[in-house]
Amino acid sequence: MMGFIIALISGTLMSIQGVFNTGVTKQTSLWIANSFVQFTGFLLCLSVWFVKERNQSFFNLWKVEPKYFLLGGIIGAGITMTVIKSMSALGPAKAVMVIVTAQIVVAYLIELFGLFGTQKVDFCWSRLVGLLMTIGGIVIFKWKT
After folding, report:
1. pLDDT 10s digits, 66-108
2. For tag attachment on the chain, is the N or C end more exposed, with fewer CB atoms within 10 Å?
3. Helix (H/G/I), strand (E/B), else coil: 114
4. Among 27, 17, 16, 6, which Cα is nearest to 80's?
5. pTM of the model
6. Is the distance from CB of 70 to CB of 113 less than 8 angstroms?
7. Interatomic CA distance for residues 88 and 34, integer angstroms
8. How many CB atoms within 10 Å of residue 77?
9. Contact (CB, 8 A) for 89 and 95
10. In angstroms, rounded to a whole number, what is the distance separating the alpha carbons of residues 29 and 54?
């Protein structure tokens, strides 16, 4: 249950952050806003690390395998940029629906094929139907009346 609650909080924060970042971008620029987001996030993480985990060395990062796992920050900058652009173009609700649907599809494919060291799962028709229903929901939501 706690994982579900945390996921709800995550989705809520992502939606609010996307709106805030889009507002900053409109008043500055895409890359200034993105830099500010990443920098302030870095400062918060560094502060929490200093208070809670400073016994853990940053040098442990060089022990991470496979090395492509270290691309999360670069991917994070791409996420921030694409969320800002999509919210600006589609509005918050449509953008988040498409973003979340893309997350579901890609996450299922990652599990289905066991990519990036995840445990491989068997194909399940009900999951495919669920994905198609989600995509259908976007079509209905976008439908002009």
Report:
1. 999 999 999 999 999 999 999 999 999 999 999 999 999 999 9
2. C
3. coil
4. 17
5. 0.84
6. no
7. 14
8. 15
9. yes
10. 35
